[in-house]
Amino acid sequence: MIETRIIAELVIDNDSLPPSSPEMVHERRVAIFDILEENEFALIDGPEGPYRVDLGMIEKRLKLGVSHIDGAPIKDVMVSMTAFRRVIKDYFMICESYHNAIRTAMPAQIEAIDMGRRGLHNEGSRMLSDALRQHAEIDFQTSRRLFTLICALHRRPKRDVMS
């Protein structure tokens, strides 16, 4: 039986990606792998899947190019990223705090920062689900993983600081 409510292939538009460190490339690969391993995605008032989704940025909008798995286009879903700016910025700041805390902080401090990080990630995921509500039904885990990829499209590598 072919699963029809899934993303079977996910591609990120290379032109949308910022310059990337090896860690950033790895983070994207893991998120894509996780989505493809388990997801729930179905177009509203559209044909059944499985789907191919091309993810990219056009100006300040997220573009999900949804196609049949054979490549025949179905529709492009555009989402303004304006509402996501604050949560993405806060998410990056808390991720940096988390990575710094791992080296020096007490376990309770690390756990508190990580709870805040997960809370912001959940907030961004809910925002994404809401933004896609008119176009597609997605489960929360798929939304979380897509939010990770959205952050990857906005993340810039750290600059090396000379001593």
SSE topology:
Elements: E1 7-12, H1 22-37, E2 41-43, E3 51-58, E4 61-68, E5 73-80, H2 85-104, H3 107-132, E6 136-138, H4 140-154
Parallel strand pairs: 1-3
Antiparallel strand pairs: 2-6, 3-4, 4-5
**How much β-strand is present in the residues?**
15-25%
Largest sheet: 4 strands, mixed
Q: Give the termini separation.
A: 59 Å
Number of strands: 6
Compressed to H and E, one letter per element, the order equals EHEEEEHHEH
Helix content: 40-55%
Task: Please state how the strands of the largest beta sheet are arranged side by side.
Answer: 1-3-4-5
Overall 3D shape = elongated
Mean of residue pLDDT values:
88
Uncertain segments are 159-163
